[in-house]
Amino acid sequence: MKFVLSLISFCLLTTGIVYAQDRHQFSFGKSEFLLDGKPFRIISGEMHPARIPREYWRHRIQMAKAMGCNTIAVYVFWNYQEKEPGVWDFSTGNHDIAAFIRLCKEEGMWVLLRPGPYVCAEWDFGGLPSYLLKIPDIKVRCMDQRYLSAVGEYVSRLSQQIVPLLCDHGGPILMVQVENEYGSYGNDRAYLEALHGMWKRNGITVPFYTADGPTDFMLEAGSLDDCAIGLDSGTGDGDFEKAAQRNPNVPAFSSESYPGWLTHWKEKWQHPDTTDILKEVGYLLSHNKSFNLYVVHGGTNFGYTAGANAFSPVQFQPDVTSYDYDAPISEQGAAKAKYYALRRLIAKYTDHALPAVPAPIPVMAIPAFTMRPYTSVWDDLAKVKAVNAPQPLPMESLGQSSGMMLYRTVLVGHNSGDLTITEPHDYALVFLDGKFIDTVFRDGGKWTVHLPKTTSKFPVLDILVEGMGHINFAQYMIDRKGITDRVTLNGMTLMNWQLFSLPMAEPPAADAAASDIGNGEGARQGLYFKGEFELPAVADTYLDMSNFKKGVVWVNGHNLGRYWYVGPQQHLYCPASWLKKGKNEVVVFDLHQLKETSVRGVMNLE
Fold first, then answer.
1. pTM of the model
2. What is the DSSP string of 228-246?
3. CA 47 to chain centre
4. Which terminus has fewer CB within 10 Å in the chain: N or C?
5. Residues annotated as part of the active site
6. Among 312, 323, 308, which Cα is nearest to 471's?
7. What is the spatial distance between Cα 462 and Cα 473, in angstroms, rounded to a whole number?
8. Phi, psi of 221 (to 5 degrees)
9. What are phi and psi of 353, to 5 degrees?
10. Which is nearest to 563 in space by CA: 345, 274, 301, 223?
11. Angle in degrees, CA 9, 109, 32, rounded to 5
12. Segment 176-198, tens digit of pLDDT
């Protein structure tokens, strides 16, 4: 027993008590932050562990430190930690948020924690779990008790992970953000107070901050009296004066200064002028202001995690897979020109030499290899139990978060004419008796296609709908996927549907029983393709998908994300850790490609 007690004591000494000896007090002065009672300027670079291969976490933290940052800002995505209702993961792979925060401490970096529950971040549903949308009349980011009940469980679960990592417990977390940019969304200050109270009741003892645009109405709706004021962004005297007018008793800082910007499908890559961010950071440094660069490194929206924007009922702007963001550190971890420009600027205001920039991560090209069709989404239907419904239901009603859903009905009465889908969320393919007719994309409100005349007495109508990411910002966030209302033909509402749930979490096995789909001869849109390549050694690469049309890619079972011929993104990032020496397998699901083609590995995003 004495040996066991001694062993326990040794473990505590080497973990908790070492942290206890390293406890720090972070607090507010009237206009500045204080660390152990002394003025402290936060120079933060934001990155998101869910978007970075875990094997590269330390490298990306070291890159931020070498640029001059002393802090890492970290978003936690609730829907990444709770994949299904009540199914939590804080331990596997990129889900281990505590491990990332401990790495920050090991690298001598402080942490600003941004746990939401809503975060925006161009992430699916702004980090909220889509199972909330199964409740027909749910309201989010307010005092709806059904929403708050789910939030309470999230706060409780996450707090268990992060309380030991607070700076006053010996960890690196200096501050925790309450919600995110709430003044851009709503005005329920009781909701913000309720959230604030939840975190405190669950043991969060470090100070809090809010973050909003530097406008009077946003600051009034989104700030709390005893929280520091984050400005998204704080670019000059006028912005900080607005914060001081709102609350002169707490510090303000630029909680999101933007060295880059996001990109949607059908846009050109965003490349903001570096002059602007250098001017802003120069002002912040010369005026002794704290700030956070959003983002210092973006990473990748792997799988189905990319979100979308919409600022009108008929607008829909899905985000590309890459979250490179034109950040100082590229998606693949390389230092860009703006990285070195910011490093030189920050170095002028530090009292110590900056660490050397870490060596680049190796990247390689891969010769082209052939991708051949091997099965189809239509073969998948044999493994799916159809749900019968009088009218279409959205994916979330069936417990589905992403992927595809097939809606099938038999036409009675009208069997040709103008077919209108209200509303298609987000990209639909229309088939009549197995023949492809047309596509419907949600953006723009043009949701009608013409069905040609048919000789069938009772033709079968199939509508295959792809969800392209839940809206993550502003008032249209209640964004269910699939067909969200009705389908009409010449004004007649079509009834009696079969619904097939196709979440596409993984591709069908290569040896799955499949129909003879040929190679473009008589094939129907919605094919899976398979190919292989050999490697003598591994390194990062980008798969060039320009020979395909629209779909998703798996490499050795890892979902790289979506591609779409409309651009701008044709190259999908694949980290070395997802490759292996010898044979590697690639599977592509494409909505429109019908013939075999090729894929190659290239060395860059653009």
1. 0.95
2. EEEETT--SHHHHHHHHHH
3. 12
4. N
5. 181, 256
6. 308
7. 32
8. -80, -30
9. -70, 135
10. 301
11. 115
12. 999 999 999 999 999 999 999 99
Distance CA 70, CA 272 (A): 24
Segment holding 61, helix H or strand E: helix 57-67
pLDDT average, residue stretch 448-463: 96
pLDDT digits (tens, 9 = 90+) for 527-572: 999 999 999 999 999 999 999 999 999 999 999 999 999 999 999 9
CATH class name, domain 391-495 = mainly beta
**31 closest CA partner among 253, 234, 282, 220:** 253
Distance of alpha carbon 117 from alpha carbon 587, whole angstroms: 34
Amino acid at 168: D
Q: Is 526 left (phi over 0), alpha (psi -120 to 50) or beta?
A: left
Domain 2-347, what architecture? Alpha-Beta Barrel (3.20)
**CATH of the structural domain 366-374+512-602, one choice from 3.40.50.720, 2.60.120.260, 1.20.1250.20, 3.30.420.40:** 2.60.120.260
Q: In what order do the strands lie in the sheet with 527-535?
A: 558-564, 550-555, 582-590, 527-535, 366-376, 597-602, 541-544, 571-574
Cα-based angle 254, 259, 263 (whole degrees, multiple of 5) = 115
302 SS3 class:
coil
Give the DSSP letter string of 312-339: STT--EEBPSB--TT-SB-TTS-B-HHH
Structure tokens at 430: 């229309």
What tokens appear for 297 in the block? Answer: 């490194």
Phi, psi (degrees; rounded to nearest 5) at 428: -120, 140
Q: What angle do CA 479, 481, 484 make, to 5 degrees?
A: 85
Is-same-fold flag (366-374+512-602; 391-495)? yes
* Alpha-carbon distances of 516 from 9, 507, 519, rounded to whole Å: 66, 18, 9
Contact residues for 64 (Cβ-Cβ < 8 A; gap 6+): 45, 47, 72, 109, 296, 297, 329
Kindly state the percentage of the chain with pLDDT values over 70.
Answer: 94
Taking alpha carbons only, the member of 35, 95, 94 closest to residue 70 is 35
Query: Which residue is associated with the tokens 């970290």?
Result: 74
Q: How far is CA 110 from CA 107, 137, 187, in A?
A: 9, 41, 31
In which element (H, E) is residue 222 found?
A: helix 216-222
pLDDT band at 3 (very low <50, low <70, confident <90, very high): very low
Boundaries of every domain in the chain: 2-347, 366-374+512-602, 391-495
Say how far apart CA 348 and CA 286 lie, in whole Å: 10
**Separate counts of helices (H) and strands (E) for the chain:** 12, 33
Q: Identify the DSSP state of 540.
A: B
In Å, how far are 295, 317, 387, 413, 600 from 421, measured between CA atoms?
Answer: 38, 19, 19, 18, 37
